TrEMBL record, chain A:
Cross-referenced InterPro entries: ABC_transp_permease
GO cellular component: plasma membrane
Source species of the chain: Halocynthiibacter halioticoli
Keywords assigned: Cell membrane, Membrane, Transmembrane, Transmembrane helix
Transmembrane segments: 12-33, 53-74, 86-104, 110-128, 140-159, 202-221, 249-270, 276-293, 300-317, 329-348
Main localization, broad class: membrane
Membrane topology: Multi-pass membrane protein
Protein name in UniProt: ABC transporter permease
From TrEMBL, chain B:
Family annotation (InterPro entries): ABC_transp_permease
PANTHER family documented for this protein: GUANOSINE ABC TRANSPORTER PERMEASE PROTEIN NUPQ, SUGAR ABC TRANSPORTER INTEGRAL MEMBRANE PROTEIN-RELATED
Any one annotated GO CC term: plasma membrane
Annotated signal sequence range: none
CDD domains, per database record: TM_PBP1_transp_TpRbsC_like (cd06580)
Full protein name: ABC transporter permease
UniProtKB/TrEMBL annotation, chain C:
UniProt-listed PANTHER family: CARBOHYDRATE TRANSPORT ATP-BINDING PROTEIN MG119-RELATED, GUANOSINE IMPORT ATP-BINDING PROTEIN NUPO
GO cellular component: plasma membrane
The protein's name: ABC transporter ATP-binding protein
Residue ranges of domain ABC transporter in the record: 22-257, 274-522
Family: Belongs to the ABC transporter superfamily.
Organism: Halocynthiibacter halioticoli
UniProt subcellular location: Cell membrane
GO MF, any single term: ATP binding
Length: 365, 320, 527
């Protein structure tokens, strides 16, 4: 039974959801006496109008690609990993530890190590909730929420204790060695004669994120593991019939998910701050939820949604300066996107489906 | 640690526990009816903001309370429409509500008061008065019992007593009334409720409305206690309440016990942290994380398995 | 006891008033293209036990759901006690004095018996008075109708038989005059079933009207006063039980069907492929689903398992397919299989040459949101020929093979990129068959091969099964379609209540005999 064409499902519905989210956001702005169009103009200008703006936008985009991929892979197995925040924080710890432990001579050596440790620490933080879900049936949503808070406490403890630079006030680690410095867009593009802002945090991690999108695609649609993950996510009973072990799939998927979240640290910790600071993740883990929902768990969708949120995040910062609209406006949009694409999907989907079914009937299909 | 210190710790235990308890009971109604609610945090936050703002503007904490509760109920209704009417994912809806409240409260507060997302401080007359129970002053000097009565039991604001009173009331409603029986059945086996000729949808809406009301009180308490609203002032209390609910295995008296325990951890933290016990120094962060760690242990079923209401999280779709 | 019942029966017959307890006139109900109920009219006299018998899918449950307000009939009227009554929802059915005991109980597991009984029928806001009243009534009912059950016990601690009593008590507490029971003995032991019948007789003698939906002839003969037979959505006959015989009912039930012609040479039996001995399965509720069955299948043979669904066939397929636990002994080519049910064992069964077309292609056999080509290797995704290396799958190889298989099995449209959900039932089934049969298995397990499949595809599917047999493979065919089992199988085993009721060569039996066995009548069939 065909309900609607594929393009409607993958494009029309998300766009309608987004449109409604923007309309409501616009109404909120009107209600607080701001001009939505002017705000939109500022946001576009602030995030794409200069190479500095673009640099920030892509920096945020990079974060959200990683956390979006983390949510996305879990969703393919019908797991709701709400713990991206904690896993990304732990990823930061892994990256910081390895970068501080070795006097790295060059980033080409430091980056693989950071990728390995970031991923490993993120995966480790996802392992306990995954194990408890697979073997003891403890609901993964609740345990991952708990693990976010435990992670926050743990990081707070470490950053005010053993990892803190003695004698300094700030709850942060020492700066990473020079050799662990990742090229920024400014440095990467200079050899090609392209002038890119020196002050933008976008860095080489963006390319790693793009690579991860590709890896994600291969993993989900080209490997046997991905096949098993998707089969389990679609139907547990069918997976069992086919001899796919549910517990194994839950644990492996969550490890991959945690690793993607942990990888974010190469961008915000290694690439931008170049030290581990307190609350380094800044909610990016939660934005991953919106990104994956919007992006329909597909790399292209995740990229576009991450870019959208990168734009919102950077544009939102400009709103503060230009219009005295707090950047929490972005949180509102994020909430509406999650609500509409995730929980209220049926509200938009049902009428659209009806329209298409009517059209099919009219055509005699 | 002397006696008066102990009284002071228990006194602030009660203050810390009150918003937890109200939010925890809110979750209890909702989840007992089969609607999982991870949006407790957002509803509290929304209510705290509206209470703070309206109480300042009107000069009446009661009007603030009323408006704050209305805001919380409105957020509940969004959850209801998404998860009951449209059979949406209850978890995602809860997540969205948390962000919605976190964002909207700051956006509106900034536009309203121009204080960067705070509300102005409430003058004493726009806050709840401490209630001195009868004879509190007279009995003050009676040894042991005197301070317990006049310092610990007496002298709190009304919402503290409301929260404590809500426990037996909730117990009675759930286990001694027709409504409670049906509500619990809707969370365990909605099919049984439906075939008995009772509307599952209506029951679940009632449940989330009560949850909205109680979260509203919790939020109002926070705004009143701090004398204003500040960004993210719930600071994860909604999730601690959720943890307490699981810890209490969805039962009212146990919920009170757990919230008092978690409240005690907060109250005692300043006295415990950086003291060493058996050679191990207690970090304040460890005490902060303790409620979550304990909940994970309970969830794992290593110490008495926490079994949630069986139909929790699933939208009820009439069988066909 | 027997005489008391006799007199009771005569009295109620004499008292039968002209206004029946229930009268249905011209009830029709369609689900999409499927006509579940076709112009059904029936009179159920007050104070009688009225049986409704029919095969799976005959439309019995739909009819009762209409009566209980779950579905709205497309056409027709309902009269209760002579008055036309609209039943838009369960509440209306309850007010009209109808009580229903569902096959799957509608009880809250962690509530007490009392709480379950009063749920939805409480008097007033406070619970205690209702509970007190219910407790008193329960004591009375227990004495009157042998409905003893501890009012303070939790449902989860009760046996299935006791749970059913709670359902009956629920209906009586709501003052039901008409009690509908849907396959009430399906989950009961024989002793529990006998007890249930004593309860029902007591209720009937007290003037209640009882409608008993069942597929078991023995029950019909034992307890009903009147019996209606349903077949393919139609009410084919209503007769007095005393004026009919099990043989006659079996015939009415299965009908005189024209056998589908399946061109089939006599079986060339080879050596024994599968041997099953003393196989037992206990489900999660602790109910024994397979009660020590045994049979064998030889190469070049189709063994058909006939029976009404829910009598252990699904469990048998799951065990043999490798994803359910069991005790007993199963050997393939004399080599014993591991029955411990470790989940990954479904893979090792495939490696041993057991292919499985599951009963439910939507829940098990296919991933509906996967493309046809992805479904074509489902269960065989580990096979090296579908993989480039340990990690990457060889999608091109899968794709090519899918196209070849779609051609050979005439799957329409022959488009590997289409999602499984977008094929018709027959073409979905062909995808599953193509996948499993083309593996050239030693043993093919096949459940409900033509459920929800159009006529044209049925013939094709049957041919494929026979062809596989003629290649010397062993086939275990499970079907609730008696006609299908008769025309395809070489040998037939009838399952009833987790046991094997009998074994027949298909050339030496007929529908009547098998129908009796399926309905649990052993003596009648042997006679």
């Amino acid at each position: 039974m065909k309900k609607m064409p594929r393009w409607a499902d993958v494009a029309l519905i998300p766009i309608l959801n987004l449109l409604i989210a923007f309309i409501i956001s616009g109404l909120v702005l009107l209600a607080i006496g701001k001009d939505p169009w002017a705000a939109l103009g500022t946001m576009i200008d602030g995030s794409f109008g200069s190479s500095r703006g673009v640099g920030y936008t892509l920096y945020y985009t990079t974060n959200f690609i990683f956390t979006g991929l983390a949510m996305g892979i879990a969703s393919h197995a019908r797991m709701f990993n709400i713990g991206g925040e904690g896993q990304a924080a732990l990823g930061g710890l892994g990256v910081a530890l390895i970068l501080l432990a070795v006097p790295w001579p060059h980033w080409t050596l430091a980056l693989p190590a950071a990728i390995l440790f970031g991923g490993l620490f993120g995966a480790a933080w996802a392992f306990i909730p995954a194990y408890l879900q697979a073997k003891r049936g403890s609901h993964i949503v609740i345990t991952t929420i708990m693990f976010n808070f435990i992670a926050a406490s743990l990081m707070g403890y470490l950053l005010t204790g053993v990892l803190k630079v003695p004698g300094k006030m700030a709850a942060e680690t020492a700066k990473f060695p020079e050799g662990a410095h990742l090229p920024t867009f400014h440095e990467m593009l200079a050899p090609f004669g392209i002038e890119f802002s020196k002050h933008a945090p976008a860095n080489l991690s963006f390319l790693v994120a793009l690579l991860c999108l590709y890896v994600f695609w291969i993993l989900v649609w080209r490997t046997r593991l991905g096949y098993n993950i998707r089969a389990f996510g679609e139907s547990e009973s069918a997976a069992v019939y086919a001899g796919i072990n549910p517990a194994k799939i839950i644990i492996i998927t969550m490890l991959i998910s945690g690793a993607f979240a942990g990888l974010m640290a190469i961008n915000n910790v290694m690439g931008e701050a170049e030290r581990l600071i307190h609350n380094a993740v800044e909610g990016a883990g939660f934005i991953g939820i919106a990104v994956a929902l919007m992006g329909r768990n597909h790399p292209i969708g995740i990229f576009l949604a991450a870019l959208l949120f990168g734009f919102l995040w950077q544009g939102g910062a400009e709103l503060q300066f230009e219009h005295q609209i707090p950047r929490e406006m972005v949180t509102v949009i994020q909430a509406l996107v999650i609500l509409l694409t995730g929980a209220l999907d049926n509200m938009v989907r049902r009428p659209v489906e009806k329209l298409f079914i009517m059209r099919y009937k009219a055509k005699g299909l | 640690m002397d006696f008066m210190t102990l009284i002071a710790i228990f006194d602030s235990t009660l203050r810390y526990a009150t918003p937890l308890l109200l939010a925890c009971l809110a979750g209890l109604y909702s989840e007992r009816a089969g609607v999982v609610d991870i949006g407790l945090e957002g509803k509290m936050l929304g209510a705290a903001f509206v209470t703070g703002g309206v109480a300042y503007v009107t000069g009446s904490i009661w009007l603030g309370l009323l408006a704050g509760t209305a805001a919380s109920i409105a957020l509940s209704l969004i959850h209801g429409v998404a998860s009951i009417t449209y059979h949406g994912d209850q978890l995602i809806s809860g997540v969205a509500i948390n962000f919605l409240a976190a964002g909207l409260s700051i956006v509106i507060a900034s536009a309203w008061f121009g204080l960067g997302g705070r509300t102005p401080s409430l003058p004493p007359e726009a806050r709840f008065q401490n209630i001195n129970l009868p004879l509190a002053d007279t009995l003050q000097n009676v040894p042991i019992l005197g301070p317990i009565y006049s310092e610990l039991i007496s002298g709190h604001t009304i919402l503290v007593y409301v929260a404590l009173l809500a426990v037996p009331v909730t117990w009675a409603v759930l286990f001694r009334t027709r409504f409670g029986l049906r509500l619990r059945a809707a969370g365990e086996n909605p099919g049984a409720v439906d075939t008995a000729g009772v509307s599952v949808v209506r029951l679940r809406y009632y449940a989330i409305l009560i949850a909205g009301l109680l979260c509203g009180l919790a939020g109002a308490y926070l705004a009143d206690f701090a004398a204003n609203f500040v960004k993210d002032m719930t600071a994860g209390r909604g999730f601690i309440a959720l943890a307490a609910l699981i810890f209490a295995k969805w039962r009212p008296w146990q919920a009170m016990g757990t919230c008092l325990l978690f409240g005690f951890l907060s109250a005692a933290a300043p006295y415990l942290e950086n003291k060493s016990f058996m050679g191990i120094e207690v970090a304040s962060q460890f005490i902060d994380a303790l409620p979550y760690i304990l909940t994970v242990i309970i969830l794992a079923g290593f110490v008495g398995k926490a079994i949630p209401p069986r139909a929790g999280g699933q939208p009820y779709v009439k069988e066909q | 006891m027997a005489t008391a019942t006799e007199t009771g029966r005569q009295e109620t017959a004499a008292l039968a008033s002209p206004a029946p307890a229930i009268e249905l006139r011209g009830i029709s109900k369609a689900f999409g293209p499927v006509q579940a109920n076709k112009d059904i009219s029936i009179r159920v006299e007050k104070g009688t036990v009225h049986g409704i018998i029919g095969e799976n899918g005959a439309g019995k449950s739909t009819l009762m759901s209409i009566l209980y307000g779950f579905y709205k009939a497309d056409a027709g009227e309902i009269f209760i006690g002579g008055k036309e009554t609209l039943i838009p929802d369960s509440q209306a059915a309850i007010s009209a004095g109808i009580g229903m005991v569902f096959q799957h109980f509608k009880l809250v597991e962690n509530f007490t018996v009392l709480e379950n009984v009063v749920l939805g029928a409480e008097e007033g806001f406070r619970l205690t008075p209702s509970l007190r009243k219910a407790r008193k009534l329960l004591t009375e009912l227990a004495a009157e109708y042998e409905l003893n059950v501890d009012p303070d016990a939790l449902i989860e601690d009760l046996s299935v038989g006791h749970r059913q009593r709670v359902e009956i008590l629920k209906a009586l507490y709501r003052k039901a005059d008409i009690l509908i029971l849907d396959e009430p003995t399906g989950v009961l032991t024989p002793a529990e079933a006998d007890h249930l019948f004593r309860i029902l007789e007591g209720l009937r003698d007290a003037g209640k009207t009882i409608i008993l939906i069942t597929h078991k002839l023995r029950e019909i003969m034992d307890i009903t006063d009147t019996v209606s037979v349903m077949r393919r959505g139609e009410m084919t006959a209503t007769v007095k039980t005393s004026e009919t015989s099990p043989e006659h009912l079996a015939e009415l039930m299965v009908g005189r069907k024209v056998l589908l012609r399946v061109d089939k040479k006599p079986a060339q039996l080879g050596k024994e492929i599968l041997k099953v001995e003393n196989l037992r399965v206990v489900d999660e509720q602790g109910v024994e689903r397979l009660k020590g069955i045994g049979f064998n299948i030889r190469a070049g043979e189709i063994l058909g398992i006939a029976g009404v669904s829910g009598n252990g066939q699904s469990e048998l397929l799951e065990v043999l397919g490798g994803y359910a636990e069991a005790t007993g002994k199963v050997s393939l080519h004399g080599e014993e299989l591991d029955l411990s049910g470790a989940e990954s064992d479904a893979q090792s069964r495939r490696l041993k040459g057991i292919a499985h077309v599951p009963e439910d292609r939507h829940e098990e056999g296919l991933i509906l949101n996967f493309h046809a080509w992805e479904n074509m290797v489902f269960g065989y995704q580990n096979d090296p020929k579908y993989n480039k290396n340990k990690i990457l799958m060889d999608n091109k190889a899968i794709w090519d093979e899918t196209q070849a298989k779609m051609d050979r099995f005439d799957v329409r449209p022959p488009n590997p990129r289409l999602n499984a959900a977008n094929f018709s039932g027959g073409n979905q089934q062909k995808i599953v068959l193509a996948r499993e049969i083309e593996r050239n298995p030693e043993l093919l397990l096949i459940g409900q091969p033509t459920r929800g499949v159009d006529i044209g595809a049925i013939e094709f599917i049957h041919q494929q099964i026979v062809e596989l047999r003629d290649q010397g493979k062993a086939i275990l065919l499970v079907s609730v379609e008696l006609e299908e089992v008769l025309s395809l199988a070489d040998r037939i085993v009838v399952m009833f209540d987790g046991q094997i009721m009998g074994e027949r060569l298909s050339s030496e039996t007929d529908e009547r005999e098998l129908g009796m066995l399926m309905a649990g009548m052993k003596q009648g069939a042997d006679a």
